[in-house]
## 1
Amino acid sequence: MKIIFLGTSGTVPTGQRNHSAIVLEYLDEYFLFDCGEGTQRQLRIAGVNPMKFDNIFITHLHADHILGLGGLIQSLDFMDRKRTLDIWGPKGMQRVIDQILNTGTFRLSNFDVKVHEIESGEILRGPRYKVSCVPTRHTTNSYGYCFEETSKRKFLKEKALQLGVPEGPLFSRLQKGKSVEVNKKVINPDDVLDKPIPGRKIVYTGDTIPCDQVVELAKNCDVLIHDSTFSHELVDKATDMGHSTTQQAAEVAKKANVKKLYLTHISQRYTEPKKLEREARKVFEHSRIAEDFMVVEIEKHW
Amino acid sequence: MKIIFLGTSGTVPTGQRNHSAIVLEYLDEYFLFDCGEGTQRQLRIAGVNPMKFDNIFITHLHADHILGLGGLIQSLDFMDRKRTLDIWGPKGMQRVIDQILNTGTFRLSNFDVKVHEIESGEILRGPRYKVSCVPTRHTTNSYGYCFEETSKRKFLKEKALQLGVPEGPLFSRLQKGKSVEVNKKVINPDDVLDKPIPGRKIVYTGDTIPCDQVVELAKNCDVLIHDSTFSHELVDKATDMGHSTTQQAAEVAKKANVKKLYLTHISQRYTEPKKLEREARKVFEHSRIAEDFMVVEIEKHW
């Protein structure tokens, strides 16, 4: 599992930071979270083939989080994409896509864009993961997303043998969560499976002031990617504008007992982000300012 | 007078080339030609304040030439711009701007965007320049632009003195193109002004197959910036897609007797652009492949 930061700027991009966009790579699937202007080019530079995405998750409909969708969709069409592209976002997402597909002399001839307007809770389940969302607190309707790998239970081979289960197809049946009968005795999966080990969990807030919903969503996660637009000196401005300070993001990370915090959506005024990182680390040690093209590998739990 | 190339890619951007956009700086005015996705960030990197633009000229309404308008307009609003921004482009330009201003939760509260849908001929006249356009030949309604500095006539001081005009306010009157009377004899400006020296002239084609209109528009210009999407091996593809090859662009430059040719809109397939440059130079020596952030100074004619 790998995170690639494509854009870590606040509303206005800088030479070092492009608009918001984050790639999550899990097994052979690629997920995109937010798609600010210039994302298709950031993907090129990062060496990620845009054809690999099937799902794009948008946190909210402000320009700096969505203006890359038009170019990306058009380029996918240009590359002869056939597979449907699913785009998830708040109420209004369909209208945005309709507007985009009506701008200029747009051509979308090869594939469909399917829009899902989200509310709260689980929105997508894959073979080994689920994606859920919660409303956050920004100046417009906004959501944070959680990508969570399915938990896994280790098969206790010794215990199974003790219970008289012979090695072979019955092992496999139990591992799949089905009961078996041995010597007229029923053996249940719970008898031979260890307690569940939670899978890896990533949470991305989009733009938000600190909020309990994020603390809840991010509980014990591996990586929390949190809005950190301003230094805490500008806490009032941050609140007015629906953003968090670095210190506030670190407080959320601490409360949620996350393993690692990445701070993003950095205002253009901070040309020396290490200062922000120090501010965060005073509250939560495992804090890091995200940079464009930073790659974060998340180790397996089992 | 200075040209700054902000984006020189074909339809799909690469790590080295962003979408089409060119800045022209003349005295204290800044003009933008095309505005592909990511242009606002290219401006940042080039160190050009986007607040300085009053006029943006769009060659045609394909996505790779216009998708930067939304982000640029929003950032100008964010920067508290008050002055009206004039955008020039083909029929349909107004609809594009309307769509852009209706995408997402767009906020445009501080200034007006005034759209001019162009046809042919002179479209804008400044104190010391004019901008004109001609239809070009692409797969959609498209235009090439010409920026031309006003011509200047040198004041022939010796001749004026010989004709009995005393140094002082009468000199100034004649220089401004007005007649004066000296010893009951009328002296006309033509008597004391040398023949006009044409001003500097820049032509940008946007996307087009080679065409006579561009040859005419570019006659004797200082700089011709021409579509050069493909090498001449792909001439059929270029024609089908409404583009020029490098060789064709060079032929246009030669016919138009331009001083310098810059080749742009380079397809992503060319990772070694010097090959294209050699192709052009076989036809027209003063050819150069444009690169992002290349700056071209154009010397004064007087």
## 2
Amino acid sequence: MDRVNNLKQALPYIRRHRGKTFVIKLGGRVFEERHALLALAEDITLLHNVGIKVIVVHGGGPQMNELARKLGVPQQVVGGRRVTNDETLDLAKMLFRGKLNVEIVSALREFGTLAVGLSGGDGGLVEATRRPVVQVQESDGSTQEVDFGHVGDVVSVNPHVLHTLTNAGFIPVVCSLASTLTGGILNVNADTIAERIAIAVGADKLFFLTDRSGLLEDAADLDSLVSYCDVADVERMLAAGVIAGGMKPKINAALKALKGGVPRIHVISAFQASSILLEVFTNEGSGTLIVNDKHEVQP
Amino acid sequence: MDRVNNLKQALPYIRRHRGKTFVIKLGGRVFEERHALLALAEDITLLHNVGIKVIVVHGGGPQMNELARKLGVPQQVVGGRRVTNDETLDLAKMLFRGKLNVEIVSALREFGTLAVGLSGGDGGLVEATRRPVVQVQESDGSTQEVDFGHVGDVVSVNPHVLHTLTNAGFIPVVCSLASTLTGGILNVNADTIAERIAIAVGADKLFFLTDRSGLLEDAADLDSLVSYCDVADVERMLAAGVIAGGMKPKINAALKALKGGVPRIHVISAFQASSILLEVFTNEGSGTLIVNDKHEVQP
Amino acid sequence: MDRVNNLKQALPYIRRHRGKTFVIKLGGRVFEERHALLALAEDITLLHNVGIKVIVVHGGGPQMNELARKLGVPQQVVGGRRVTNDETLDLAKMLFRGKLNVEIVSALREFGTLAVGLSGGDGGLVEATRRPVVQVQESDGSTQEVDFGHVGDVVSVNPHVLHTLTNAGFIPVVCSLASTLTGGILNVNADTIAERIAIAVGADKLFFLTDRSGLLEDAADLDSLVSYCDVADVERMLAAGVIAGGMKPKINAALKALKGGVPRIHVISAFQASSILLEVFTNEGSGTLIVNDKHEVQP
Amino acid sequence: MDRVNNLKQALPYIRRHRGKTFVIKLGGRVFEERHALLALAEDITLLHNVGIKVIVVHGGGPQMNELARKLGVPQQVVGGRRVTNDETLDLAKMLFRGKLNVEIVSALREFGTLAVGLSGGDGGLVEATRRPVVQVQESDGSTQEVDFGHVGDVVSVNPHVLHTLTNAGFIPVVCSLASTLTGGILNVNADTIAERIAIAVGADKLFFLTDRSGLLEDAADLDSLVSYCDVADVERMLAAGVIAGGMKPKINAALKALKGGVPRIHVISAFQASSILLEVFTNEGSGTLIVNDKHEVQP
Amino acid sequence: MDRVNNLKQALPYIRRHRGKTFVIKLGGRVFEERHALLALAEDITLLHNVGIKVIVVHGGGPQMNELARKLGVPQQVVGGRRVTNDETLDLAKMLFRGKLNVEIVSALREFGTLAVGLSGGDGGLVEATRRPVVQVQESDGSTQEVDFGHVGDVVSVNPHVLHTLTNAGFIPVVCSLASTLTGGILNVNADTIAERIAIAVGADKLFFLTDRSGLLEDAADLDSLVSYCDVADVERMLAAGVIAGGMKPKINAALKALKGGVPRIHVISAFQASSILLEVFTNEGSGTLIVNDKHEVQP
Amino acid sequence: MDRVNNLKQALPYIRRHRGKTFVIKLGGRVFEERHALLALAEDITLLHNVGIKVIVVHGGGPQMNELARKLGVPQQVVGGRRVTNDETLDLAKMLFRGKLNVEIVSALREFGTLAVGLSGGDGGLVEATRRPVVQVQESDGSTQEVDFGHVGDVVSVNPHVLHTLTNAGFIPVVCSLASTLTGGILNVNADTIAERIAIAVGADKLFFLTDRSGLLEDAADLDSLVSYCDVADVERMLAAGVIAGGMKPKINAALKALKGGVPRIHVISAFQASSILLEVFTNEGSGTLIVNDKHEVQP
């Protein structure tokens, strides 16, 4: 009876979201706990079954570090971006596309949901160009040229393969590799791919699943969660240095997605049980909802 | 959080029923309590929003008696079937099609669901022929000819208008009037219309909403509910006289629907809160489930 | 042979109208004569069978008065608009939706044409809001507040259910009830509904079937029929007081429909044999054709 | 008013034939009178506009004789079939496809109807093989080998191009040339092409327009018209020699079409005003209707 | 192996042209050599089979002269345009539509390709009006009125029948006759029809097959072929009188097509083996490619 | 000019194969030479561009051995089948799905062709069950239980995701991993997957690309190539022990595919330049064609 009452309380939310598209960016750490991945797969299956079109995007930074360490492949990171030589690119393909992507598809299958794993190179989905060599200033004031190797900047997203798959009832699961026009594979930031895909498909929501429960006013105080804010708030927090570390690129991607027409960005925990469902099916939510302007009625 | 947990427990049921068609026969008494009607509308809206195609069928016997009494139109009932002269047919149109049907459509609208009211005469949905004059044996042994007037026997159901409306996202709400090939309107038993429509559309479930919580082994003992039974059980109960009164025509319609290919019939309460949802989204259910053969694995 | 010659003379008219949409507003009195209703049904069937999409709209004022009188329900009319309390609303539903609407559908069925009866509350077709309380000036100079009760003003028309039905080969027959967003039923002027539907579906013609043969220059002289006029003519006639009584709201609706893009309004007799067909298939017509500007070539 | 009454009398016929396919075989002599051709084009336009799919088939024997005579090309006919050498085949192409076919398309255009002229070689419509050399017995008892040259026997009809055109709203007009699989053009009997096309498209009616008003019991008595008959009647008339001359191949084609599933064959006059329309829109008809078995209810 | 290597070299060209539309205007002289026509049919079949939509347009001037001479019908040409009296129009229909059009369709059939022959009068494809009487200045300075008779100027092209046929997999073959709105047939310049059709269907290439290998800088020097030029070049050549004779109307049509949005015009030989394929599948080409502006990157 | 002539010679082959489906199984060694992989991608692109639907299937045995050796993961092979423990399964995912599959998709992209990489676990494509523990007889006569671990036997193929992608213009590239109904990943023989997919999609041809040029009568004599044979021949060769080693499972898969309705199996070299194209576009071919019965006309 509780179940039925709760279903009925969920009804207005189901009605609001049916037929909409959600892009969900999984953070790398969710792969460390099979339990967390399965919980996510169940949540996504539920969204799928009440008529929401879901597209999953993922990277795999932490796993990459671990695999490189295990195999003795030294990794160099400059300005938060991994320098990707041939050997590292091979590892990225094998890890992102071969292992993590397959694990998400499998976890969804465990709940009876048919997904199709993709990289940005499949179906011409994400076109990128090699990042130009950049001048990086050293701490001693000298500058150094850095060639990031097989690192790409996104040029365009062609969502045809996504529409083809979602219209046929499949959930696309996209890993953070892109392709040049001539078939070269490039390592691309997963937050950026999620943002660009969300814009290209006209998503209604873009979720970033992170290690935190959302944006915090005070990084040291987990109770300082910001439930609801807008671009002005976020820019103020960025200026104040409240947003830092791995959250920063996510928030920058979020701002671009808002600008690109995605009306709602959700920053939530990858580990809190059912954080996505709480965010979608309750008013309170579980993390941070960012909109363009909180003083306007949201569409 | 409870809501979300309950949603997750409902997930296997949602997955099982998506895309299926349910026919729901409302008993006349549900119109007496606006509260009960709204509760039903909410339940139906939920089924609709998780992707189930719902078709509602209703009669209005009790309201008919009351209206006839208020307007001083004498009613004659022979063998459980209302003799329908011109004046009574006018009342039936006005009550079933004009008042009750509109009330169901309105109640669904209150939950944001778009329904379209129909009689069996709309879109050529239910074709009937006038019931022949019958010989009825009197208690004194004499026989009497009874002409039921504008009472019809169903000849065929053409579900085209139902598919047209459900495919366009509308819920059809059908009242128990039928049409002859030449446009005559006939009063037809609503249980029969529900059964014939369920067969014609290939429904997966046919619900009879009644004043009882389901079939009772002992009519005097409300705790003697039969949760699960099959045709053999029902025939045994009919032979034993356990099923009687208004339940009998429903059960006869149920048996015909089972024979016609509808795999599951549910006899449930029109008044118990969320009886439909309990029946659909929990294993325990709320009333009686009748299948062809309970020893076989159900499809 | 005459038949065939006449068919051939009708050919240019058939070619002109195939694939077009006509909205036909039936006046209440046509229900008083079964003969007249059947004649109309035959005419509509003919239009339907030469490829014209027909939508029928009807009210039922005269029948309402009679039914109220018979049942002893007092009726109050202010400024030509019926004050609609709960009891009167129930009568309206029963009469418009239950009796008259069913009769039109049946009459069409008699000619083999499948129609679907609708109220403005079905399929979200006509959304209305309750008319605000108004100040009415009495003859003695005092003012009085009038609450029209369940009387609605049309907010919008969503033609989706009409297109769904006409594309599937059904003729929609719409009675003059509308719905609020929350499922309330309101009594709405049928001329207004006809006008708004004609605009919403992009009708090519809107017919008003009336007790007169069309607009008369001199109300007392039935031979003073105006065959062809435009908005300027009509406004002149309104100013001169030539158009009065029940014709006035029809003409106001006609003017709004012309302004809303319906190129031709026909005011014709509901009782003259085949008045619609004469209007459609002959140059002389049978009543009054109103266009935006008779000096311009009509589209 | 007559027009409208006649339209109404035509209504049951329009309803019966909407959506059906008629194949109309024009006899060659209709081209001799522009007036007759235009009258036919008007009749066909009317059928087209009440929703009947029309396919026209024509030959051009009489015109062929005249053209050959004018150009001094000797013609040889054996057993009713023209021996077709290279020069005669060129004349056939120029006359049938170039002149007569264009004239029918133009006549239809004059009534606003868009037709597309075809030969059996267009779109792979009619595949034929060259007729084998045959032994013909001379009057003196000797036999002679006759090579008919570019005369074809129909192998198969592929109606794809006909469906493509009729579904797009065009009327196909087919002249009596066919193609071999390797592109050779052959002269084929137009009655046979009409019969084979009628079978291939599942036509409801096949019309032969002839110089007579239909089948006559007594060739000398124009009043001896047979209005309605069946295969048994026709076979009896053939045995009795009542059917002779150019009527014989038509009737043989008619019998094959009936056997191939075309339920009704009409033999009517090409010159009587509106003979097609009389046949379609009146019970009396104008010529001869042939069915499989007149004692059975016709489908 | 050569075949396979050459296929692979053709691959980039196949990829570039798949799904595009080519209009190919055949010059009249190609009909004089069955060998040349078959070679063209093979080339067109190849284009069709690698996924290019081909539309063929043809006239038949030289054959017309010959036929008229043979039949003793005097021909008058004023300013390059044939005066077309009734008798000449009949010849034009018989020759263009009856003989030449059928020959192209047959030649394509010989390679297994299904084509459908059309005139501009079929399916309302090309609407024309009769050319007005013009004043022509005589060499002696006097002027003379010339009535070209059944000669038409193109008013509009309705490509519906072309799209219908190409979408169904057929190749339309259009001869240079057009129709007035009332069914009159007019003789229209084939270069103009090709140009107007190319614009109407949004063709990517328009080919003119001529007796020369392309545009020549010096008409006397067959080696002075211009491989690649633009509108400015062509206008310079016209001004210099380099382009003359039958090439002039083609080039004027080419300029109009370029202006109308056809990006590439090819003037090539009708007789050089595989000139079309060389032009499409090699960089060198075989004749003259004309673009709007050779200094811009071509789309 | 050679190119064009060769294109024309290829035309009959192009016509024969347009719209057909080819399944191409790549052998693992083709990944060792980037040059060979690119050549294959070019060939596949050509097939794709002349309208053939291509599905690529691949394994990666040799690369697996090398990767395992490099990472020091011991590999056990029993009866030709790799025992797949957890660590080896991870390697298989990373290598097959992560590296090799991505390389094929990239190589195709280099020729402008959009492919989508899949494992049998994507979109529910290949369902498998874990291979049961088997008794293996040792050379000393003792038996040993072998648990192959994550090795699967194919239960069924659901081609929905393949049709979805090919209909949208993408080439599916499938690696040899399958999924259980509950999301477990299993290592499955690639020849078997190719065979089962070819049957499921109704392929017209199934290619096995191998290290040899085809089937050899005498393994030691590379000139003893069998160009054309049937099932009877193959069974004779199997009985005679002529077919051995890695060729044996391919041939067994080929026999099953033939039995399952795939009419033509091609065993060709992965390294001979353009072996696929030679096989498809020439009569001589390049390897071995196997049919059901070489004495029957092939469909």
